[in-house]
Design a protein that fits this description.
Blueprint lengths: L11 H7 L21 E3 L5 E5 L2 E8 L3 E2 L2 E3 L2 H8 L3 E3 L3 E5 L4 H13 L9 H4 L2 H14 L11 H15 L2 E2 L3 H13 L2 E3 L2 E5 L3 H11 L4 H13 L1 H13 L2 H6 L5 H10 L2 H4 L6 H19 L2 E7 H5 L4 H7 L3 E3 L7 H9 L17
Parallel strand pairs: 1-5, 3-11, 6-9, 6-11, 7-10
Antiparallel strand pairs: 2-3, 2-12, 4-8
Helix pairs in contact: 1-12, 2-7, 3-8, 5-9, 6-9, 9-10, 9-12
């Protein structure tokens, strides 16, 4: 069955967060049927702890995709949120077009056309023969006959293929963590701080025209998606299971080069994006979140935050930025010795310097 287009409504942050994945060698292929997706009641992972004197920031790292039929009961997280002074929402990136609803709707036809290859081309016309053959194999495996997808740009074809594969693997991308945290925070009357960075697009119609006419090199996006499905479906399920059961060690050890990284780079590397400053969104997002987290650590006793694991753990990601500012970062399950905790409570004088924009985000 052909998935409706666009089926994969990936949030902007999913693409932005993917930019922080470090290149990692492909995992050994694991047959899909040998890795079962966990179901039932699961605790999820523990929380990262960031300390500044007597102030603590607790961070839950989210993962996508997760087991579809998992029933998540995170007692530690629920308790932390209920007793928090402040909750820090996941960082969000977006584009402000300055248009009202009617203006946005007038762009819809052109946006829908942008999904397709120009001049009635088909994937067979633009993909190298070897890559097209791989696409045909994976499309037959996960979707079957899908003539409409043959007219899609490689990126949009890749999104549709991956979404159908995730459904067959009994996985889903929905961010269940923030939904739960926000619900508890609202119920308990906790302050919610939202970190959102928007790029102002003063000429959305012209930008869309440039995008449609110039296109972008998104073959790497499709190639990375095919590689994931050819080699890493077992690892995909293994990481989802590890998150569900709270196996932090496996999450840290079994990393992969996410296909969303290649897709995000394809979009941000276009001239239409760069000339409008969209390529700076990842750096700006990290800087804005670090500023909000630092303000909480300096002024608030207990804060709970939610962030994508890729964004959290990358070499130039959120935890690295917090360490650079002088804060103590502890992984899930690790606690300070009592004497060290006493020293930390007395030490409020460390120099803290703003994190400068890093150059590794778009490598």
């Amino acid at each position: 069955m052909i998935p409706p287009m666009p089926k994969c409504r990936l949030p902007a942050i999913a693409l932005l967060a993917a930019l922080f994945s470090s290149p990692i060698a492909a995992a050994t292929a694991v047959p899909v049927l040998e890795t079962l997706v966990v179901t039932g009641i699961q605790p999820g992972p523990g929380l990262w702890q960031v300390r500044h004197g007597t102030h603590t920031l607790w961070i839950m790292g989210t993962l996508s995709p997760l087991p579809r039929r998992m029933e998540w009961e995170p007692r530690e997280l629920d308790e932390r949120v209920a007793n928090a002074d402040r909750v820090l929402a996941p960082p969000r990136g977006g584009i402000d077009t300055g248009l009202n609803l009617f203006g946005r709707l007038t762009l819809l036809p052109a946006a829908l056309r942008a999904r397709n290859l120009p001049d009635s081309q088909r994937l067979a016309d633009v993909l190298p023969p070897e890559l097209y053959a791989r696409w045909q194999v994976q499309k037959a495996r996960w979707i079957g006959e899908a003539p409409v997808l043959e007219r899609r740009r490689p990126m949009f074809a890749a999104f549709a293929l991956m979404e159908e594969a995730l459904e067959d693997l009994d996985l889903e991308r929905e961010n269940i963590v923030w939904q739960r945290v926000e619900r508890i925070a609202r119920r308990e009357g906790r302050e919610i701080v939202r970190v959102r960075v928007e790029a102002r697009l003063d000429d959305p119609r012209q930008a869309l025209r440039e995008f449609n006419s110039g296109g972008f090199d998104d073959l790497a996006c499709l190639e990375a998606t095919l590689a994931r499905l050819e080699q890493d479906t077992g690892l995909l399920v293994e990481r989802a299971n590890a998150w569900a059961v709270g196996d932090t060690a496996t999450l840290l050890e079994r990393r992969f080069d996410d296909e969303l990284r290649a897709c995000a780079l394809a979009v941000l590397a276009t001239e239409a994006a760069k000339k409008r400053g969209l390529d700076t969104l990842p750096q700006r997002l990290v800087e804005a979140w670090l500023q909000a987290a630092s303000e909480s650590l300096e002024t608030t006793a207990n804060t709970v935050a939610v962030s994508d694991l890729r964004l959290l753990l990358a070499d130039d990601g959120l935890l690295a930025g917090l360490r650079a500012r002088g804060y103590l970062v502890l992984p899930p399950g690790e606690t300070l010795p009592e004497d060290a905790a006493d020293d930390a409570a007395d030490d409020d004088t460390a120099d803290r310097h703003p994190v400068q924009p890093t150059s590794g985000l778009l490598r």
